Amino acid sequence: MNSLEIAKTWLLPPFDEETQKAVQNLINSNPKELDDAFYKNLEFGTGGMRGIMGIGTNRLNKYTYGQATQGLANYLHKQFQDKKITVAIAFDVRHNSDTFAKLVADVLTANGIYVYLYKEFRPTPELSFTVRNLKCDAGIVLTASHNPPEYNGYKVYWNDGAQIVPPHDSAIIKEVRSVEFSDIKFNGDDSKITYLGAEDDKKFIDAAVENTSYLKGKKDLKIVYTSLHGTSIKILPDALAQAGFKNVFIVPEQKNPDGDFPTVKSPNPEEPEALSLALKYAEEQNADIVFGTDPDADRLGVAVRGLDGRLVLLNGNQTNTVITDYILGKWKENGKIDGKQFIGSTIVTSDIFFPLANHYGVKCKVGLTGFKWIADLIRKAEGKEKFICGGEESFGFMPSDFVRDKDSISSILVACEAAQEAKNEGKTLFDKLIEVYSKVGYYYEELVSIVKKGKDGAEQIAKMMEEFRSNPPKELVGEKIVKLDDYQSSTSLNLITGQKTTIDIPKSNVLIFFTDKGTKLACRPSGTEPKIKFYFSVQDTLSSSDEFENKLSHAKNKIRKIKEFLEK
């Protein structure tokens, strides 16, 4: 059926009167919006759903949330027969998140499943912790992370506190797709809901502090922090205070939770503009360090004093590098490294983590993009090897395994410890980063995201990836491409010898090109946003801070030339 024909089916039961009226208005007055709202089913992917809120099969609404939850309920009953099934639910500050969370809870309880539901918005990492702490069978977070205000989402977690991976992801998708809207059980049973609040926050904060405390002594670090109108304001100020950091200044204009995110173009700490108010406030307060978190508080942006004393924003790889070095150093000091430990990374994250891990005598294990794959590495290694920490370039870090997702709360606590130790030595975190580069090599990365919205945008992104596969470049900035990794076909091709090897990582629509000089270009469509992403990476040596500016300029110039090549 075409979009109009599908839309007309929403003019009849089981759809309620309000929905039918809204659909009729679209049919009468907005054919373009109607087509985008009904041209496909909003995909329930390997981690859940993310999309624009509104009426239609390609939107998040009562019925698409209900369909996803009914499918999940059906799967849980097949997996956990003859037991009391429990699911924890949290939600962010976005419009309708609280309403949708209660709707999701109702569908679960209508299916005989018991629910732990947070009364108010909470950070995503707290939900991961709660699933583990309460020994739930699954967890759900309603969030669209750092997407624009019109978006919302639905992420599913398994009983280890990690987002779903095979075989559960595809099996749940199959169940969701088999649910007709008329199958959804909306009439919940409130007696099966237990509400969570401050006592549960305390358990999370206690665990966060316990798992990130390495440093003793004074903690006079001067911190500026912004929640970007999001959920971290519920937890982070209390967590910092409990960890001993009392010199904290919260950006006043961005303190209040607000699903419109009124002070930023995008509530994404990856974007420099999002932290502009925090940087200005930090200069007024003469702060040592700046932190910003995205709306669901799993990502963090960091700014520190650079070599010239001015505040400089770190990218995700730089933040992860300096925190990882600090944690590994503490493990080594405490005699906890014996070769049976590892750190986690992803295929589009900086390669610096390989020599850094080797420097400390641990392994660096790599998975696909997304922290669920780092959590999968942890799950597979349990009882054999110990996970220390892990991260990926998209401003996410996991400083321990008590949370099985990226966690800005705990990451900020350990970053403060690292910055405090540097301050005690008369240094900054940027100085510490330079020291890491001097030890293991200089690595510099940039990311370019191209937004392609709607049906046409999805087709353009697919065409771009196909072009890279069918006509791959032979060189980049004068450097010969010597290897091509295609994660969709699970093959690594040595372009010098022609030898093909199998990539032992689940399939994904990612291409990575490697040159003979260590330059790397990765291409992948985003799994959560209408974007195609290009990851650029170059490497060099660095013997001292005196060389840094020249090395940085050279790296940026090389990446600029690669961008110009791609634009041709």
From TrEMBL:
GO biological process annotation, one example: purine ribonucleoside salvage
Gene3D superfamilies: Alpha-D-Glucose-1,6-Bisphosphate, subunit A, domain 3, Alpha-D-phosphohexomutase, C-terminal domain
GO MF annotation list: magnesium ion binding; phosphopentomutase activity
Alphabetic keyword roster: Isomerase, Magnesium, Metal-binding, Phosphoprotein
The UniProt record lists the keyword Isomerase: yes
Alpha-D-phosphohexomutase alpha/beta/alpha domain span: 43-181, 203-303, 315-436
Keyword Metal-binding: yes
Cofactor: Mg(2+)
Top-rank lineage group of the source organism: Bacteria
Homology family: Belongs to the phosphohexose mutase family.
Protein name (Swiss-Prot/TrEMBL): Phosphoglucomutase
Biological classification of the source: Bacteria, Pseudomonadati, Bacteroidota, Flavobacteriia, Flavobacteriales
